[in-house]
Amino acid sequence: MKSITILIADDESEIADLIELHLEKEGYRCIKVSDGQEAVHAVQMHSIDLAILDIMMPKLDGYEATRQIREQHHMPIIFLSAKTTDLDKITGLVRGADDYVTKPFNPMELVARVNAQLRRSMQFNASAPANAPVLEAGGLIIHPEHRTVFLYGKPIELTPKEFDILYLLASYPSKVYSSENIFQQVWGEAYYEGSNTVMVHIRTLRKKLGEDMNKNKLIKTVWGVGYTFNG
Fold first, then answer.
1. pLDDT of amino acid 77
2. What residues form DSSP beta bridges with 228?
3. Tens of pLDDT along 155-175?
4. CA 32, 23, 28 angle in degrees (round to 5)?
5. 154: CB partners within 8 A, 6+ apart
6. 130 pLDDT more than 80
7. pLDDT tens column, 63-106
8. Do residues 9 and 122 share a domain?
9. Residue 177: partners with Cβ closer than 8 Å, 6 or more residues away
10. How much is the average pLDDT of 56-66?
11. Which of 22, 214, 215, 225 has an alpha carbon within 20 to 30 A of 116's alpha carbon?
12. The domain containing residue 65 runs over which residues?
């Protein structure tokens, strides 16, 4: 059985060592680095199943490291940060993280979040086999196997959560999803900040799809209810 490898990127060695100690007790293999540039290099050189990235790191911060990692890889990413406002958390999720943990944190809670993200990742991979249907609508083509999106032949770069939201809506174009429904299915949990998080992701997704300039919106808001695919 393949061992699960987790990348820990934090310039505070005491924090990185503490995380490593608790993850190794769970049977995970850990790779530790101290800046964002090393984190990107580690992902290129090793088979990483999940990354834990501090936001404020030397050379490359967690946001930029995530952007570069997301160009080729789709493993779950958890942000660590001393920034604790709701806006900070939503920004982290929109910038490509799958979860956001504030410092100081309970190591056992972080381990639980790691386990949850790995479980969801494995469930998604199992539910999207090689023969999962390619979805096409209104010039939009979604390839679930490669997690790629094209609009009129042009590739659209989406974060993993943006892709999951779009694929969910496009898979059932006649169904209306509330923000809570979307959050529960894409993030896999009930969360009191879920509505705002989904709203921000939808807004960013629409911008990437060029809907600000297009009257025929692919994602339609059903006021007071939620969102539906309008392909």
1. 93
2. 220
3. 888 888 888 899 999 988 889
4. 85
5. none
6. no
7. 999 999 988 888 899 999 988 888 888 888 888 888 899 999 99
8. yes
9. 168, 169, 185, 226, 227, 228
10. 93
11. 225
12. 5-127
Residues 119 and 139 in one domain: no
CA distance 183 to 191: 8
Determine the Cα–Cα distance for residues 102 and 84; give it in Å rounded to an integer: 6
Indicate the pLDDT class of residue 57, thresholds 50, 70 and 90: very high
Whichever domain contains 192, its CATH number is: 1.10.10.10
Please, are residues 226 and 178 in contact by the beta-carbon 8 Å criterion?
yes
- CA torsion, ordered 192, 161, 187, 111, to nearest 10 deg: -100
CA distances from 64 to 68, 130, 161 (A): 6, 31, 17
Residues 225 and 185 in one domain: yes
Determine the longest span between alpha carbons in the chain, in angstroms.
Answer: 54
Structure tokens at 30: 């850990």
d(CA 102, CA 85): 9
Strand partners, 101: 80
In 3D, which of 120, 34, 38, 18 has the Cα closest to residue 77?
120
Half-sphere exposure for 2 (CA within 13 Å, toward CB)? 6
Domain count, the chain: 2
Q: How far is CA 213 from CA 64, 103, 206, 210, in A?
A: 28, 40, 10, 6
